[in-house]
Design brief:
Blueprint lengths: L21 H10 L6 H9 L4 H14 L3 H9 L2 H6 L7 H15 L3 H9 L3 H12 L7 E2 L5 E2 L1 H19 L1 H10 L2 H6 L3 H19 L4 H7 L3 H8 L6 H16 L1 H6 L1 H12 L3 H11 L3 H11 L10 H11 L4 H47 L1
Antiparallel strand pairs: 1-2
Helix pairs in contact: 2-3, 3-6, 6-9, 7-9, 8-9, 9-10, 9-12, 12-15, 14-15, 15-17, 15-21, 17-21, 18-21
């Protein structure tokens, strides 16, 4: 109920990694005769002993996946199976780059998600998420970088988003998740005061998909009614909060016992989401759009980020994060996207509720007609 499919991740105009340009890299590999194809060039990097080579290969994979003409070559190769092992690599930056590349790949289509499951991406993905479940961790947010979270936490965010897409696309992924015993640890991450709204929203959206027609998840989620209900009481602070509150309502609506207990608050929450004036929010973005070109030019002049020879892994991550910081307009577009997503989910939930009630009413009418005919 209330499924929310993620939009495709757009290809950045800038090079956020500070590494070699993708096209230049592939051309160089081919010119040097090291690889027969661009895909093989990436495979060679993924199998390199150098962490920098692996990260560069993963960044290249994440980028070429945005072009449909490259997808066939990816599927025909073993690159996904090879890269999957890097989800549990000892290097945190490699795990981060792998989760991000796979997340980008998973938004392309249901068929791609099914292919990724066939390539056994789930085994290392669930192993990675189990590491988070088995440890006490909290995100660190850098106020100097628009409250961007640390690399380990962003890896978790990318991994959850990947799992969400896989579970929404194939029952095999959902069955694997049911057996993983990760659900309780996911509910813990709904505490946005600790984990931030990005993680809380991503986890909630993953749980929304997982809880749909899934009795195995209901038996666990029914024990967290208080936590889910508390999210329904969140104020209209901002659009991410509206989305989190709405998705929580969707999870409750998916679990029959919780839906019966909190039906009144559930409907009030959906009504509050739908009454927000999205036209006003869209108008704010539209009025700012003429500034995009000017800001992009300024960004291109400022962001000339080259890798430093002696920088640590954390310094390298911070450099890449600075290069990839969104502009004010991009932040506003994302903010409005959260609102529109929340309103779409709310409308879907109400539609499903009404459809269920109509089906039950029709069944009752059929039973009555059958009884009258028999008498």
């Amino acid at each position: 109920m209330g499924k929310a499919k993620k939009p495709k991740v757009h290809k950045n105009q800038l090079n956020p990694t500070g590494l070699v340009d993708v096209g230049a890299l592939l051309n160089q590999e081919l010119a040097n005769g090291k690889s027969e194809t661009p895909i093989q060039a990436i495979v060679d990097q993924l199998q390199s002993a150098s962490a920098e080579d692996k990260i560069c290969g993963l960044q290249t994979l994440a980028t070429i996946c945005q072009n449909d003409v490259n997808i066939a070559a990816v599927i025909e190769s073993e690159i996904v199976r090879i890269a999957a092992a890097l989800l549990v690599d000892a290097d945190n930056s490699i795990r981060h780059a792998t989760a991000g590349a796979f997340r980008n790949l998973s938004v392309l289509s249901v068929e791609i998600c099914e292919y990724m499951v066939d390539q056994d991406v789930l085994t290392p993905l669930l192993a990675l998420l189990n590491k988070y479940a088995g440890s006490e961790w909290k995100p660190n947010f850098d106020q100097n970088l628009q409250n961007q979270m640390d690399e380990k936490s962003d890896t978790f965010l990318q991994a959850v988003s990947l799992l969400w897409n896989l579970c929404e696309s194939t029952s095999v992924a959902l069955d694997s998740f049911n057996q993983s015993q990760l659900l309780e640890s996911f509910v813990k991450c709904l505490d946005w005061n600790i984990y931030g709204k990005d993680i809380a929203v991503a986890v909630a959206q993953c749980l929304l998909v997982i809880s749909e027609d899934n009795a195995a998840s209901w038996r666990i989620l029914v024990n967290f009614g208080t936590e889910l209900h508390s999210l329904l009481l969140l104020p209209d602070e901002d659009h991410p909060t509206v989305l989190l509150r709405t998705v929580a309502a969707g999870i409750i609506a998916n679990v029959p016992a919780l839906a019966a207990t909190y039906s009144g608050q559930l409907l009030q929450t959906l009504a509050k989401t739908l009454e927000v004036n999205h036209r006003t929010a869209l108008g704010t973005v539209t009025s700012a759009l003429p500034l995009v070109g000017q800001k992009d030019v300024a960004a291109l002049e400022v962001i000339e980020d080259a890798p430093m020879e002696d920088e640590s892994a954390e310094q390298s991550f911070q450099r890449r994060r600075r290069a990839d910081l969104p502009s004010d307009v991009e932040l506003e577009v994302r903010n409005v996207g959260w609102l529109l997503q929340a309103q779409r989910i709310a409308a879907e939930i109400l539609t499903n509720i009404c459809s269920t009630e109509e089906e039950e009413w029709q069944d009752d009418m059929d039973d009555e007609n059958l009884s009258e005919a028999e008498s």
